[in-house]
Amino acid sequence: MLEIPGKACGPCYFCCKVLEIEEMKKTAGKLCEHCVTTGGCGIYATRPQVCRDYHCQWKEDRGLPATMRPDKVGTLLMDDPDSDEYHAVCDPEKPFSWRNPLIFKHLVLEAKAGRMVVAKAGLRAWRIYADGHWQESA
């Protein structure tokens, strides 16, 4: 992946907190024990494959502005690797961060483009529809 100017992780380590990593028995919302909070991974060279395979949508999409960096809006945007769903992953302590107007507008646009859009926070999930409505999943 080519680096996009101005799109480095820098001090952001939001993915190290909100994502569940089964291989490390790390739950969503708990900061990874290997996270260096000044930015980076303490075991970067030997990190699990799931971490190597992860791609931050904000870093890869030129259309997402600096104001939508995950740690600034409390929401991580990503393609689900196991389906064609588009996910907005939030910290379980702030489950409605996806309702931030910047994020919500983006999610509705993804839904309008035909994607299945799901916001997640821990064990909770909401489906976002192209007309701007949303519904919590059972």
Inertia-based shape: globular
Q: What's the end-to-end separation, in Å?
A: 37 Å
Q: Radius of gyration in whole Å, from Cα?
A: 15 Å
How much β-strand is present in the residues?
15-25%
- Sequence of secondary-structure elements: HHHHEEHEEE
Residue windows where pLDDT falls under 50 for at least 5 positions:
none
Oligomeric state as shown: single chain
- How many structural domains in the coordinates? 1
Mean pLDDT: 91
| Widest sheet: strand ordering | 1-2-3-4-5
Helix content: 10-25%
Largest sheet: 5 strands, mixed
Number of helices: 5
Would you count the extended β strands for me?
A: 5
Structural class: alpha+beta
Protein name: YkgJ family cysteine cluster protein
Keywords:
5 helices, 138 residues, YkgJ family cysteine cluster protein, alpha+beta, five-stranded mixed sheet, single chain, UPF0153_domain
Task: Give your account of this protein's structure.
By secondary structure, the chain is an alpha+beta fold. The protein has five helices and five strands. The protein has one domain. Strands 1-2-3-4-5 form a five-stranded mixed beta sheet. A hairpin with a 6-residue loop joins strand 1 and strand 2 (86-90).
